[in-house]
Amino acid sequence: MEQKNLMESGSLWLPEAASTYASDFDVFYNSIYYFSIFLLVSVFGIAVYFTIRYRRRAGNEIAEKQITHNDRMEIIWIVIPTILVMIVFAWGFRDYIRFTVVPEDVIEYKVIGQKWNWIFFDPITGQQSSELVVPEGRNIKLVMNSIDVIHSFYLPNFRAKRDVIPGRYTVLWFNAEKKGIYPVLCAEYCGDQHSTMLTTLKVVGQEEYDQYIAEAKASQNIPPVELGEKLYSSYGCNACHSLDGKPGLGPTWKGIFGIDRELVNGEAIAVEENYLRESITQPAVKIVSGYNNVMPSFAYLSEKELDGLIEYIKTVK
Ligand code: CUA
After folding, report:
1. DSSP-assigned states of every residue in 159-174
2. Fewest CB within 10 angstroms: 59, 85, 141, 170, which?
3. Cβ–ligand 1 contact at 311 (below 6 Å)
4. So what's the pLDDT on residue 113?
5. Does any ligand 1 atom lie closer than 6 A to the CB of residue 190?
6. pLDDT tens sequence across 209-265
7. Which ligand 1 atom is at minimum distance from the Cα of 149?
8. Residue 201, ligand 1, Cβ within 6 A
């Protein structure tokens, strides 16, 4: 499937439009944009022209010195801009309502934003993942919430953005028009790893979606090690923890089970089940020497998922 690039434009400034409302919003945006350029050029053009045309020179020194009033002109420059601004208001309000009022017949996902990743709860499979997979042509509703600071869920290709706030649910909906893999960004500065808060939205056809659901349901009954291996990439552990010994943002998983590690406070600790569990659910408690406290908490994992990850780590040698 095609991975959409943000720099690949559908219009001059914006990435390819991929939701049902995106191209309409673009028409609105572009209308204001180009009309503003037209006004800017006109006003400056006329100003420059008049400056040259009516400059002081022999023969026109007796130009009127003081202009006090012109009713007709004042009415024109009040009425015309007022009409223009009201058109922009009505048009913008209509699009705002379209974006804000969620249609009926939706598939509803729960989304959690945290420093620094997104977690999606699939209502059909009951599973959590760090990537969102949705069917093409269906209304998708996201009910979002943050567990730490303010984030902002942003789908540039869909022209959809909404803040994700601790202690409150916010809602965003869209209907994906085109299949593809689209970038999901955080659009609110939320700490030093803000720029890494990226994931993808995969829009698939109904058939592929049914297959995805069937596979996800089947995967609920796989052995712990296999589950852990799947979670390693689906939760994005692979972004920081390598399997081949290379250091990343976090320690490699290669051969760590059973060895002793030195922590930043100088203490040594054996890598066993309890330590791993604590480091997944409360990563800040024991930081390995040479690394920073940057890992988000995965305290919302189920017992089965925690068990799967720990069993998997044991096998990485
Ligand atoms: Cu989350 Cu920026």
Report:
1. TEEEEE-BTS-EEEEE
2. 59
3. no
4. 92
5. yes
6. 988 888 877 776 788 888 888 888 878 888 889 999 888 888 999 988 888 888 888
7. 1
8. no
Q: CA-CA distance, 70 to 73, in Å (whole number)?
A: 6
Helix (H, G, I), strand (E, B) or coil at 61: coil
120-159 pLDDT, tens digit per residue, is 988 887 777 888 999 999 999 999 999 889 999 999 999 9
Judge whether 234 and 298 are in contact, CB under 8 Å: no
Q: Under a CB-based contact definition with an 8 Å cutoff, are residues 145 and 165 in contact?
A: yes
Q: Which residues, at least 6 apart from 190, have a Cβ–Cβ distance to it below 8 Å?
A: 115, 116, 148, 149, 150, 151, 197
Closest among 115, 111, 98 to 142, alpha carbons compared: 111
pTM (2 d.p.) = 0.71
- Tokens 């690394």 label which residue? 291
Q: What digits encode the pLDDT tens for the residues 20-56?
A: 998 899 999 999 999 999 999 999 999 999 999 888 7
Cα–Cα distances (Å) from 188 to 153, 168, 194, 195, 298, in that order, read 8, 16, 8, 10, 22
The pairing of beta strand 151-155 with beta strand 160-164: antiparallel
